[in-house]
Here is the input.
Amino acid sequence: MEKTNTIQGIEQKVEAILSQMTLEQKVGQMTQTERMSISPEEVKRYHIGSVLSGGGSCPGSNTPGDWVAMNDAYWAASVESDEKHLSIPIIYGVDAIHGHNNVLGATIFPHNIGLGAANDPVLLEKIAKVTAREILATGVEWTFAPTLAVARNNQWGRTYESYSEDPEIVKAYAGRFVKGLQNNLGRDAVIACVKHWVGDGGTTYGIDQGDTRISEDELTRLHISPYYPALAEGVLTVMASFNSWNGDKCHGHKYLLTDILKDELGFEGFIISDWDGIDYLDEDYSKTIAMGVNAGIDMFMVSEKWKTFIEHLLVHVRNGRVPMERIDDAVRRILFVKIKYGLFERPRPAERFWSNHDSFGSKEHREVAREAVRKSLVLLKNENNILPLNKTARIIVAGKNANDCGHQCGGFTIAWQGVSDNDSIVKRVSEENASSTYGGEVGVQKGSIVGGTSIWQGIQAVAPNATLSIDGRAADSAKHDVGIVVIGETPYAEGMGDIRSGDNTIVEMGSYIKGLLKVLSPYGRSLTLNELHPEDLIAIKNITDQGIPAVVVLVSGRTLIIEKELAASTAFVAAWLPGSEGQGIADVLFGDYDFQGKLSFTWQKKEGENFLRGDENYEPLFPYGYGLQYSNQD
Ligand code: GLC
Here is the structure.
C-alpha cells in the first residue's frame, strides 16, 4: 500500500474506507473495551476499534512475549476481512504513564510530580522515547499519556500524575513528551493521549472526579493552556475527563469537547472517553450514550458492557437521536489517526521491529530513569552540611520505604493501586512460571518490580558500612555515625489516594449520578504525615534518640504536612515516587551528583492551608521553586 502521509492522501484513504463501512462497522470502530471482556473472535465479529488494558490487566505471565502474542491475536482478527467484516487494524491502549508500568521488567520512571521538580524538558523527551520503545516491545501502539493535569489541591489522589500546580512546567513538557512518544509517527512511534480534558486538577477540595468551579478565563489559563503545545505537536488523541466544570460533566460537555477542542483549537484526532466515563452522565445508560456521542466523544472506553453500548448506539442512530453525520465524523477521526500513524502499513505485532526487543528494561533504559531520579530530588534541609555523606560512614538505614521497590514506584505499577514489593521478597513459583517469567533461577521469583533497585540496595552498593534496620531499633551510637530514614506514603491511585478531611467533603467522592454518589475509601483524612503514618516519626526517633543524626528521605505522591519529621531531621530530601531505579538517590546523597530539583508544588506549612504560586500573602513552609544544592551551601 502506498504511504499515505500527506493530509490529502490520508483524507482520501479515510473516505475510501468510510464509504465501504456499514453502520455496525462504524459503531464497532467507536468502541474500545478491556481485554478481559473480549476475545479476538469478538473483535472481528463486532468490528471493534480498540482494546485496552486497565491498570494491572496483563496477559499470561506478563512478559513482553505474552503481550506481543495477545496483541498479535487481536490484530490478526481485526484485519481478517470477510463478507461482514472490513479489515481495519485495532489499536491497543495502555496507561504507560511512568514507563510501561503494567509489565514485569519494564523500566519504571519517576512519577510526574518528581519530573516536574527536575524541570528538564529535554529529559522528558528522552523518557518518552524510551517509554515508546518499551511499549512497542510488547506490540502495543497507544498510551494514555501524558497527563496534563495542573493539580491545585494536594488532597487529590492523582496529584503525583501532575507535573506542577502551575501551568508553566506542564506547558514546557506537554509538547516534548508528545514528540518523544509520537516520534514523527515512524517505526519508533506510539500514539499519545493527553488527558484529562479538562480541568481534572482543579476540583474543589481536590475531590477525584469532582467539580472544578472556576471561570472560563481561569479554566483556560490554568487547565486548557497546557494542551496548546501538545496540539501543536500533533497529538493524535485526547481523553475526556471525569470531572465537572461548574456542575456539568466534561463527558457530556459539547462546548468543551466540540466547540473548544475541535472547532476552536482545531484538534484533528479523536477524543476517547475515560473508563465508563459516560455512565455518570445520567441514570439511564442508553441516554448517556447519546449524550456522550453528541457532545463530541468519538471512541468510548467501555470496560465490560460494550455489547449493550453498541446495541443502544445503533438504535440511537436509526431513530435519529444521534445524527449519522456525527457518527461519520467520529469514524473519520478514528480512521485519520490510524492512517496517520501508518497502522495499515505496519506489520503484525509479532513481526514489528521493536516487538520483544532486548532493550526492554535494559541497563541503558534504566540509566535514563536513574538520571531522572537524581534530577527529581529536592533538598529541603541540610543542617551542618551533613550531606553529602561519606561512603565509608557507618550508616543505619531505616524506614518502611527503604527497601520496597513497590512503594518507591507508587500507584499504576504492576497493579492499578501499586504493590508493596520488597525486592528481597522471594516467592516460590512453579517451574514453568519461573523459567518463562524470570529466566534465571528456577523456582525463585523475586518481587514484581523485576530489575528494580530499592533505595537501600542503592545505598548498600556504594557504602560498605551501611546496615538495614527498618524500624531503626538497631541504632547504636557506638556503631553508627548517621541514619538514613526513608519514610512516607504507600501506593495508591485515583480516588483511593484522596484525602478527605471532613464530612463536608467525604460524600462527594467519585462521580455525581443525579445525587447518587460512588464513595471510595480515601487514603486518609489528613495531609499530616504523622497522622497518616506515625511509624515514620517513630523510626526517626529510634535513631535520633541515640544521638545519631537523621537524613530523612520522603517517598510520597505529594507534599505533606511534615512539621514533626522535619524538626527531627538534620537533613530532609523530597524523593517523590522515584520508580524502579532507587540507586539514583544514593548517587546524590553521597555527592556523586548535586541536587537539581526545585519544588514544582508549594509545600504547605499547616493542615488546611493551600497556598499556590502567585497567591497574595503567600506564606508556605517552602515556596514553589525552592530547593537547596551542594554547590551553593555555605
Ligand atoms: C482510569 C483513569 C485514566 C486511565 C483510564 C484507563 O480511570 O482515569 O487516566 O487512562 O482509566 O485505565
The pocket of alpha-D-glucopyranose is lined by residues 54-55, 95, 144, 195, 274-275 (CB under 6 Å). Residues 428-445, 504-517 have pLDDT under 50 and may be disordered.
